[in-house]
Amino acid sequence: MSPNVLPWLSLVAVLWLQSFNGTNLSFPAYSSQLKEFLSISQFKLNYLSFASDAGKVLGFISGIAAVYLPLPLVLLVGGSLGFAGYGLQYLSIAKKMFTLSFPQIWCLSFLAGNSICWINTACYIVAINSFPMNRQVAVGITASYQGLSGKIYTDMVNSFSNSSPREAASGYLLLNSLVPLVACFVTAPMLMTHGGDKTTSSTKDVKVGFIVLFVLTIATGIYAVATSLLSAPTVLVLVGIALFLFSPIGIPIGVWFKELVSSRKTQQKVHDLEAPEKFEFVEEEDRTKEEEEFEKAIVGVKEEVEWTQLWKRQDFWIYFGIYLFGPTVGLVFMNNLGQIAESRGCTATSSLVALASSFGFFGRLLPSLLDYFFSRSKYMPSSPVSMAVSLVAMVASFLLLLVDSDISLFISTAVIGVFSGALTSLSVTMTAELFGTKHFGVNHNIVVGSIPIGSFAFGTLAAKVYRDGAALYGDDGKCFGMHCFHTTLVYWGMLCSIAAVLAAILYARNRKFYSHKP
């Protein structure tokens, strides 16, 4: 297959993978039912959500494996771990085929959480290697599709399970185990033949391809948001999502068709002796220009830092703190969204999860969209500044949640979804900017290792406040009322404020680098 088609085919495969890889995003939709299934307290439910995040502690192993193993194999390992983690839970909890203790279920959740890292690592490396001159755009777009996972799984469950909430919870566990593994098997061959470091397509063709991809991605996001806010038959919604997910395959098909037409025209003019010389000169000129642009893109990396040296860099610890007090807080909020909605008397938990997922999709896409079209503008903020702005918006959203109304709950959930997604996308870019691309797979998984720390600490606080509220005003271990999460929301807002300050410090330390970054 043509080397110009392979990068696009690989990117489409990554989009499909990421669309089904965010299995943890659907957790809030069935967490309350899981709590009843297992007859556990809010503290133990928090430990289960923490287990999925704790799996990221060992995410660096997938980065090391990606150095020595073929990426399709890394991909299949991730799918297999998720299949085992969620599948055994399904057989035990839903089908009652055997009994598992709580520590065993915790370990299976840990395994399922770790599986996401393996698939993410393969996806990010493929995106960066396929389009090194446009790595921000490629990684950002692929990361945005993971934000759709919560909505996709919610729509699938609602389409095929119209029965009790308990059976719906079983459906989530079953889909979480099967769908990513099937996606890995389907897309692995699309990654096997791509081993180049950069595409040989002309710069113009790459720009056109990304513009088309942006249009398709934005249309997908609009559709996801609209179907989350408006009532529609879930089967039809799911069919629409499937069509939107399949549409990017038109890009590699278009590149292949253009090459086919160009090849035939060249064969027809082969008798013209002057044409080949002119064509060869133009080809050489294009290659020179592309090499110059490639070199400029590499300047966008501050330094290449091996993962064993990260702990010696002050920038790493500041960045680690930003991720700990910023994106992690957004993730903990999403993990507790089901209980927050239940405590406020809101029954539309599935709609909230779909809404957060849809807006998270746009949030992950937004940094790439701005970078691609406005990167040369002097008004384009750097990654740390964009992070600081996103964190301030999250602080405002947590304060808005203190208002007792469903409208404030929906608005805040949407805004937190947008800016949590933006922070996730920006963090991938900033890891490459500050510490290079050669060891990206390991480096970024080490940064993401802050998630389980924050998930345990901040989730435990939420569980304690919830338990105290349930003891005073609750019923059967459940808490009802605004007081259930009031203190927690204030605390989460303060943490995001700290992260915003750290982002400003990181920018001040690297202001010279970002002022010269192309």
From TrEMBL:
Domain Nodulin-like stretches: 7-253
Top-level division of the source organism's lineage: Eukaryota
Record membrane topology: Multi-pass membrane protein
Pfam families on file: NFD4_C, Nodulin-like
Domain NFD4 C-terminal: start-end pairs: 300-515
Transmembrane segments: 58-84, 105-127, 169-188, 208-229, 235-257, 316-334, 354-373, 385-403, 409-434, 446-466, 489-508
Signal peptide: 1-22
Localization (cell): Membrane
Keyword annotations from UniProtKB, A to Z: Membrane, Signal, Transmembrane, Transmembrane helix
Stored Gene3D superfamilies: MFS general substrate transporter like domains
Protein name: Protein NUCLEAR FUSION DEFECTIVE 4-like
